[in-house]
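Backbone-to-sequence.
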């Protein structure tokens, strides 16, 4: 499970891999594992005919670097991946997390007060304090009611003004280019909302509007969905699994850090993040993950 990939180092987001690390990971996966398109792998898993060491690659959210940096690497290695896109942010939008990161990046030294009940004021000075602030605020605001989070996002964006990045997410054309290259495009809700925070009606609307927008962009039906934030029982529950199935999705992925077996539900396939940066590290990690099979 990937989100972003960078061509340089961002001290504020050191956890994001640079393209050269992704290149090593892709080379290792190609050499020692069987990388399959997710839809194909999910079908084979359910039918009990998945080959050994099968792996699928996914990217969440719809960042432009997926098109600019990951797509060339995937093509170079002859690999396939599925990209889950929050369609409401295509063509110049920003996901709340990135509004927060850019706010902290550009915050003046001193006390930062976002003016939110229950969220404490933070001291901002050097890089370490900014990293700590991002971590703290991400955690404090992840489960903020969606309407309030949107209001806050709008306010922070106004404050950021010209510092707000204008092309962090893909354009419709870039999503289409991924699809034309044979990559999978999957649903991820329109506004990257945590489904368990919504009414059933609003959740259905987020799932359906996203599916309709993306399928009209790529001119194909969508087959795979990723639950935003993706923790089973916390970010979504069985009612959302049913909504996703009713919406016509053949499979769906969570962020439960595990390996899927034949017993797994096709609409709750687990995933994990590869933090390892070397060939041997990636292989050992893949071996270790077999202890977490569901
Ligand atoms: Zn996401």
């Amino acid at each position: 499970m990937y989100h972003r990939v960078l061509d340089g180092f961002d001290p504020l987001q050191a956890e994001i891999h640079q393209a050269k690390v992704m290149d090593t990971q892709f080379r290792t996966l190609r050499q020692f594992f069987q990388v399959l398109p997710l839809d194909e792998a999910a079908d084979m898993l359910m039918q009990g005919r998945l080959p050994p060491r099968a792996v699928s690659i996914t990217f969440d959210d719809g960042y432009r670097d997926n098109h600019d940096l990951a797509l060339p690497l995937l093509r170079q290695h002859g690999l396939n991946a599925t990209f889950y896109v929050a369609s409401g942010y295509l063509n110049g939008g920003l996901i709340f997390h990135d509004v927060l990161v850019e706010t902290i990046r550009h915050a003046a030294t001193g006390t930062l007060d976002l003016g939110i009940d229950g969220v404490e004021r933070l001291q901002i000075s050097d890089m370490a304090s900014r990293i700590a602030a991002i971590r703290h605020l991400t955690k404090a605001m992840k489960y903020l009611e969606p309407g309030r989070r949107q209001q806050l996002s709008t306010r922070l964006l106004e404050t950021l003004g010209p510092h707000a990045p204008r092309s962090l997410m893909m354009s419709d054309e870039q999503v289409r280019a991924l699809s034309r290259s044979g990559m999978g495009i999957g649903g991820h809700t329109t506004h990257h909302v945590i489904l368990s925070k919504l009414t059933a009606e609003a959740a259905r609307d987020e799932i359906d509007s996203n599916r309709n927008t993306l399928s009209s962009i790529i001119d194909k039906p969508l087959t795979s969905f990723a639950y935003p934030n993706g923790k089973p029982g916390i970010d979504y529950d069985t009612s959302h699994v049913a909504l996703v199935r009713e919406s016509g999705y053949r499979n769906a992925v969570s962020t439960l850090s595990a390996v899927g077996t034949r017993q797994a539900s096709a609409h709750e396939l687990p995933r994990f993040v590869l933090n390892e940066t070397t060939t041997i590290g990636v292989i050992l990690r893949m071996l270790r993950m077999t202890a977490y099979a569901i």
